[in-house]
Specification:
The complex is a heterodimer of chains A (223) and B (131). Chain A is an alpha/beta fold and 223 residues long. Chain A is built from eight helices and six strands; from the N terminus they run H-H-E-E-H-E-H-H-H-E-E-E-H-H. Chain A is 41% helix and 20% strand. In chain A, strands 1, 2, 3, 4, 5 and 6 form a six-stranded mixed β-sheet that branches. In chain A, helix 3 packs parallel to helix 8 and helix 7 packs antiparallel against helix 8. Chain A is globular. Chain B has a domain of 84 residues. The longest helix of chain B has 20 residues. With 131 residues, chain B is mainly α. In chain B, 65% of the residues lie in helices and 0% in strands. Classes of the chains: A alpha/beta (223), B mainly alpha (131). Chains A and B meet through helix 1, helix 3, strand 3, helix 4 and helix 7 of A and helix 1, helix 2, helix 4 and helix 6 of B.
Chain lengths: 223, 131
């Protein structure tokens, strides 16, 4: 049987579809997130589980951009850092242990973003080296204590090539990649930017929902 | 229905699914970021960092944004205000924290808190980072 050309095209398209989107996790339950409608986010100092002490500032500094571009107001992290210090809170662990009601009273944010850095840094093997950043995040409503969202992401120098990513994530990743090339002094910091964009940008499958400043705010999920 | 016809139908559906499934059209960024994340990182690290140099850099960034009619990111004015406070210019800090509040009314709660501390210097211990 001779297949029409369109059928071949279709087969290719379907394979591309399956390859591209196949291993999708079950859709995230956004009920709590959609009900809470947070507008302001307090990004807490990230807890660091890696041996690199720069992981906390590195990941923290990159968290604002994807969340702000997602449409949220993000409290200025350098001032939040200052406020914690002035109140005798000197570590990310201590900060993340503060009861949410206190955070709400003090900072007035709707929700807090709790990040854990699982991996951060470069490991050297005999021939190659790999720079890897792994992050996890939870968004918690500071009015009710309810979990609104959680997710994780990885960025590594071992990726064959930057995968084509559309939309905001692609844009953010491209911007960071440009910075990597510009300033190769602190590789893990650059990969932290990519990992954070993948973790916290909106428009990603099972990702953070768009906030009030986003043109996509309140629209049905286009999954 | 002929096989060819049927195949054509499946084919079209497949193409449409493939195209609409993964593609997301990308709007432009909401804010002009430049090196702002890097500046925040340097300030958090507190090593080899000069508030004066960063003020010059961020003021140039703000100028560029004005020229391009682009919005400055959340926290930009607040952070710049902190730098001015560190260099002994609380008046400029006050101005910028108020500007943050105007640009992002959602920041009012936290900005008011910072402003109240600024206006009650007797109680506030000097910032640790101040030179």
């Amino acid at each position: 049987m001779k297949l029409p050309r369109i059928a071949i095209l279709a087969a290719v398209a379907v394979i591309a579809l399956l390859a591209g989107c196949a291993t999708k996790a079950p859709a995230y339950d956004y009920t709590a997130f959609q009900r809470a409608k947070p507008a302001t986010l307090l990004v807490m100092p990230p807890v660091n589980e890696s041996p690199d002490v720069k992981a906390t500032p590195g990941v923290w500094a990159h968290a604002t951009r994807p969340l702000a571009e997602a449409g949220y107001y993000v409290l200025p992290i350098t001032l939040v850092d200052e406020t914690f210090r002035q109140n005798g809170v000197h570590s990310a662990n201590e900060a993340q242990d503060i009861p949410y009601t206190k955070l709400r009273n003090y900072f007035g944010a709707d929700a807090a973003v709790y990040i854990r850095v699982k991996k951060y840094g470069t490991s050297y093997q005999l021939v190659t080296s790999e720079t890897r950043v792994e992050v996890e995040a939870r968004i918690v409503d500071l009015r009710s204590g309810a979990l609104l969202w959680d997710g994780k992401a990885v960025a590594t120098s071992a990726e064959q090539s930057q995968q084509q990513q559309g939309g905001l994530v692609g844009l953010l990743v491209a911007a960071v990649v440009k910075q990597v090339i510009g300033t190769a002094t602190d590789a893990a910091f650059s990969y932290a930017g990519i990992a954070n964009a993948r973790l916290l940008a909106s428009g990603r499958y099972n990702g953070v929902l768009p906030g009030p400043h986003s043109p996509a705010y309140g629209k049905p999920l286009g999954q | 229905m002929s096989t060819a016809h049927w195949l054509r139908r499946v084919a079209l559906t497949g193409c449409i699914a493939a195209l609409s499934g993964c593609a997301t059209k990308g709007p432009g960024p909401l804010y002009m970021w430049e090196t702002f994340p890097r500046q925040q990182y340097d300030a958090l690290l507190r090593e080899g960092y000069s508030p004066e140099a960063q003020i010059r850099l961020l003021e140039a960034h703000a100028e560029k944004a004005r020229g391009a009619n682009a919005a400055l990111p959340p926290g930009f004015r607040a952070h710049l205000g902190m730098l001015y406070l560190d260099t002994g210019n609380p008046d400029r800090a006050r101005e910028l924290w108020k500007a943050e509040k105007t640009a992002f009314p959602e920041s009012a709660g936290y900005m008011e808190l910072l402003l109240s501390k600024l206006d009650a210097p007797a109680k506030t211990a000097k910032s640790e980072r101040a030179p």
